Amino acid sequence: MPATASTGLDADFYSFQDLLTPVERDAALRLRDFMEREVRPIADDCWERAEFPHRLVPGIAATGVLGAAWPESRRFPNRALFRGWAALEIARVDASFATFVGVTSGLAMGAIAVGGSAEQRERWLPPMGRGEVIGAFGLTEPLAGSDTARGLRTTATRRGGTWVLDGAKRWIGNATFADITLIWAKDVDDGRVKGFIVPQGAPGFAAVKIERKQSLRGVQNADITLTGVEVPERDRLQRVDSFKDLAGVLGPTRIGVAWEAVGIALGAHEAAVRYAREREQFGRPIGSFQLVQQKLAENLADVTAGLAVCVRVSQLEDAGTRRDEHAAMAKAFCTARMRDVVARARAVLGGNGIQLDHGVARFFADAEAVYSYEGTYDMNTLIVGRAITGRQAFV
């Protein structure tokens, strides 16, 4: 059976959860209870229909995880370690729901918290933390993914007290229903990247759902077009004036994705263990066979290694000593191990591993998207490589 709020996680083999404070541990258990009661029973159906369960937004907001990092929206004392653990708890049940939370709470709220003025923070963060305002984050473009630092094509032209945005964005999570989207554009005058808060329904703003996805199907990704979208100066992020400023948002969220990857791996591993205990072949449970036990042991080792990396990089974040290459290594390592775990878990289930009803197929498919977003494996390894050698190899 899935772990409940009272039983803990068997796959937390080295008891990393004990590093949480009592307040953080209680919050994590409440979150686990919400995910088990409200999300798990509908996750497969939502994935199959490519729908997002909007009715659950107030419930996830009530757990206090939205905007937990920022004083304007924080419900209780917590650290980066807790926020990572929360991402794991959500992804362990549903990676699509974890992505929704990561986009609105990590990327959108993070952009406002890091790049916004005091007035912007006070205006947006409290209602976003309550789930009353949903955010999206518009950075990636049809022709600019890994090279957004140099290749951003969306433009911002200032005309008096108004900015005019023109361009296109792609793969923007939440964008079909978000109340606001953080749009990143290049100032035509100085060539610098700036951020803008654009409300849903703004004239010239259109978000069209991307169809036929085979990963993270519950996430409502969109193609966005911006045609003469007018944004008042008060809705420009006042403390962002370069891509380097934007990078201050991406480091913490990249750590969050590493935690999500471990959560996905953990969820797939748990499903494989349940199956191995129940499925009988040759007159006994397949969990009694050596080759199955080997796969499960290797999966537990990869989950444990990923947890160790995430815990340490979160501790560095809390200490204020985390560097870009630390976050990059965590994201690359944990997503690579995640792919290995979900593949072995699917193998344990044999043919049943490709059917949603047995608890692994959804993780197996979702892992591919998580492996790529928030910086591909290749780009993150190059960030680490630059730190090792002192030489950049991006181009």
TrEMBL record:
GO terms for molecular function: acyl-CoA dehydrogenase activity; flavin adenine dinucleotide binding. SUPFAM superfamilies: Acyl-CoA dehydrogenase C-terminal domain-like, Acyl-CoA dehydrogenase NM domain-like. Keywords: FAD, Flavoprotein, Oxidoreductase. Residues 29-132 form the Acyl-CoA dehydrogenase/oxidase N-terminal domain. GO terms for biological process: fatty acid beta-oxidation. InterPro entries: ACX4-like (IPR045008), Acyl-CoA_Oxase/DH_mid-dom (IPR006091), Acyl-CoA_Oxase/DH_mid-dom_sf (IPR046373), AcylCo_DH-like_C (IPR036250), AcylCo_DH/oxidase_C (IPR009075), AcylCoA_DH/ox_N (IPR013786), AcylCoA_DH/ox_N_sf (IPR037069), AcylCoA_DH/oxidase_NM_dom_sf (IPR009100). It comes from the Bacteria. Its cofactor is FAD. The keyword DNA damage does not apply. It holds the Pfam family Acyl-CoA_dh_1. Residues 136-228 form the Acyl-CoA oxidase/dehydrogenase middle domain. Belongs to the acyl-CoA dehydrogenase family. This is Acyl-CoA dehydrogenase.
